[in-house]
Structure formats: structure tokens, C-alpha cells
What we know:
heterodimer; A: mainly alpha; B: mainly alpha; globular
Amino acid sequence: MMQLTKKIYSYKFLLPAGIIYFTFFLLPTVISLFFSLTRWTLTDWEFIGFENYEMFFTESSLNIGFRNTLIYAVVTSGLKVIFGLLLGVFLCTEIKTKGFLRSMVFFPNLLSTIAVGVVFSSMMHPSRGIINMGLKVLGIKGPDWLGNTNIALFSVALTDVWKGVGVATVIYIAGIMSIPRQYYEALSIDGGDSWDRFWNVTLPLCRPAMNSVIILSFIGGLRTFDLVWAMTKGGPGFATDLIASIIYKQYQAGFYGLSTAGNVILFLGVSILAFPLYKYLSRSEVDL
Amino acid sequence: MRKKLIKCFVEVFAVILSLVIFGIPFYFVILNSFKNRTEAAEMNISWPSEFRIIENYSEVLSTNHGVVIRAFFNSTVITVLSLLVLVIISSMAGFILQRRTGKGSNLINFLVLTGLMIPPAVVPTIWVLNNLGLFKTIQGLVFVEAALQFPFASILYKGFMATIPREIDEAAIIDGCGPLRLYVRILFPLLKSVTSTVVVLSAVTYFNDFVNPLYFLPGAKNITVQLSLYHFTSMYNTSWNLLFADVVLISIPPLILFIFFNKKIISGMTAGAVKA
């Protein structure tokens, strides 16, 4: 039988996938380790050791990317975890417009990032944009969302949350729906109110869903490029430059070695932050 | 009674709040794409004095020798070809990775999971494409798109494969089916439901992709939908009505997919998220 298994489930079936995945993903990843140590013009290279990395860590227009990327990832994933949970709980209650609202919250996720970036940049216009017009009606003077170096990064992050919170919400909804009814019944016999239901049943038992949301949105945040590029191109100054946008800028400027060093730093960063986070989160899950 | 009233009030408030936050941007874009240039430049949500629906949209479509239409064509070609490659490679991989376990499979599973997390190395990919003569070609982009979406798709296939009993394989083999025929004629048709999930979700991803065409497919001839919108932002920075009309046009294909495959998209995304 063993012989037969080997013959039927032949590794030959993996060949097409293997060739494509190796050539266009794994191979570039591996050789990036080498080319990040060179001055590189695609046709020619010169070995320069860790100079590119040194530059990345010392040059202030480059290393601002570390701080910004970390802030961006923490803010976007944090807000998606919280708002996704609130929306998820809300959209699991018995309301009439449930189906419509679920679709409405989810749909932005299917829009293209560039389109969302274009629309929000115009809504965030400091004098004419509808966000500040709306705030003016309430008597608040809105800030220059994308022009102020202190808040531009957060404005982009908020747009990201608007677009992506729908995924977080549907993951939570799936998690909440899988909680057995008996827990809620037991609680209502013991006389718990709706706060107890949320705090003692829903919250601890939707931890697996919450962990997926944290991991997915955190990694997504670390890798973000297109939204920033569509809204601010890294500006004003370098205020919204993320590692991924710096990689693109260095590529455009023809510094291929430097750009590749940024890439290596990004994927080492993602692995160093995401794997332990994943381990930690999956340990603290409660069994049903 | 009072408690019920408060509950009702909270509910109405939450519904209105979500409508404002998620509805206004759509209303804003669609309305402004109907306005004339000066009114759209004010970027507000007041009712337009005249509706220039046909004028605006036909101007977008005809601008620059129909660059938008060419972009739609290119994006469609790229999406369809990438889906074709993706479905073939990931369904075969999912089949073997689920049916066979062992040291080899563990290593492969690890490599697949890595692809789910770490971002691709950009310039080295260009170097590889360049050496293969595939840089700046549609085929090159198609292979990259298939490779990058492969981890997600093969994990979905692998998960679904587990629900198809091995007895089916055994019965087919006893009846004289070879491995290739078993996969093509018997198993692949049974995977129909997960295939449609992969196709719908990846179609949206490919159609909306900006980063990969930006890096791997530069050049006016091969422009894609998202790149055309991106170029419009600098070209039309005074004609917001046309820019918004383009945004609306570009959002129609995902909207159509969402209307027809709403449940499929949502369940596919949650399944992918939880398994990952």
C-alpha cells in the first residue's frame, strides 16, 4: 500500500507549483540576502559588506521608516481589534438592518486601495474637505489632516482602518457565532446582564478570532505601501514614510542594493515580530 | 419599558453612525462624479446644479486615446491568466499536500506558510524576471501574481481536500484510474466549491493590485486599471469630477462580484484568516 500511495500521490503534482513558487518568490527572497550587501545595477554588482544596512540605520530619512512603520502597524491593528469587536458584537444582535449593515461595513475592503486613497485625500482637504466642513458645523476647527507632520501618519492609518475594519468584523462575527448557546443560557439563569454576557462569555471565547485579527492586521500594517503612496507619497517631508515606501523610493532612485537591504530588514522585522506574537497569542487562548 | 426605549435609541444611533461613516464616502464620490468641474472642485456634498453624467464618463473613457479602456482590457487579461495558473498549481499542490504526510511535506508546508507572512523581495524579483526575459511583460507579471497568491490558495485547497474521503481515490484506482486521471476527472470537479472561492477572492486581489504592476509591468502599453487611476491623480488634479468618475468605473467590477458572491467572499476570507 505504501508503494501505491507514493505512486498515486506523486510529488510530480507539486512540480508546476514548485517551479513557479520557487522561481518567483523563494529564489528572489534568498538572493536578496546577497544583493543587499552590494552596490547593484541589475547587470553589475560590487560587494560592499554591510554599508547599505549601516546607511539604513544611520540616515535619518531612512531610519524614520522604522518608527513610522511600527506606529502605523500598532495603531491600525489596535483600532481594527477594538472597532472590529464593537461592530462584530453589534452586528450579532437582533437588529433589523443587520444584513445591510454587514455588507456596508465589509464592502470597502473590496475597493482598490488607490481609489480609497484618492477619495479620502479629497475628503481630508484642510479647507474644503467634507470632514472639516462637518466638524465646522459642530464648531470644531479641523486640522490639516495630511499636511501636518504630526498627524498625517494617523490620518492615513484611520483611512486604513476604515477600509479594513470589515474583515476584522466578519472574523469576529464568525468567532462569536461559534460560541455555544449554552454559555449564554447558563449566564442568564445565574442572572447576568448584557455586560456580563459580553465580558464573561463573548470576550474570552472569541479570543481565537481576536488573535487572527491581531496577527493579520499587524502584518498587513508592517507591509503597507499602496495606501501611503496614494495619499501622501511619504510626505510631508518624511512624516509618513514607511519601510515599504522607502524601498520603492530607493528603487526609483536606482539604489537597488539599498532598496534590497530595506526589503531584507522588512522581512526580518516581520518574522521577528510576528512569529513570537503568534506563539504568545496562541498560548493564551481559552479552550471551549 | 424604559430599558427597551434606551435600547431602541442606542440601536438607531449606532445604525445612523455606521451609515454616516461608511455611507457618506460612497455618496460623496458618486455625486461628485456627476458634477461639472467647478462644482466638483468645491468637494462638498451639495446637490449639483446640472448633471453631467454622460459627458463626464465619456470624457474619462475617451481621454488619452482610450487609456482607461486599454487598462480595463489589460487588467482583465492579467486577472484571467493569473487565475488560470493559480488554480492549476494550487489545486494540484493542495491535493498532494493533504494526501501525503511526511518529512518532505512538513518542509513544504513551512515554505508555504512563510509566503503568507513575509513580503516579497522586489528588486531581486525584477532581476529574476529580467534574466528570464519576462520583465515588463504580461506573462512575467502573471507568474509573480500566481506565486504570491499561491500560499493562500493552496491552504484553502488543502483544507477542502481533507473533506473528500480517500475511499473515492481508492475506488477510482481499483477501477483502473491513473493518478493524473484521478485528479483531473474525479477530484478536481469535486473541488468546485473551493475553486470558486479562490477564483472570486483572487480576482478581486488581482484586479485591485497596484504594487506588482507598478514594479514589474512599467510602460504605457501595458497599463493596468489601478496604475491608470494613479496616473490620473497627477493629470487631473484640477478635474475632480473626472477623477471621481474614474474611481466609480474602477469600483464597478468588485461591486458586481460582491453582489453575486457576497457569502462566498466573506466565508472565504474568514476561513483563510482562521486557518492562517
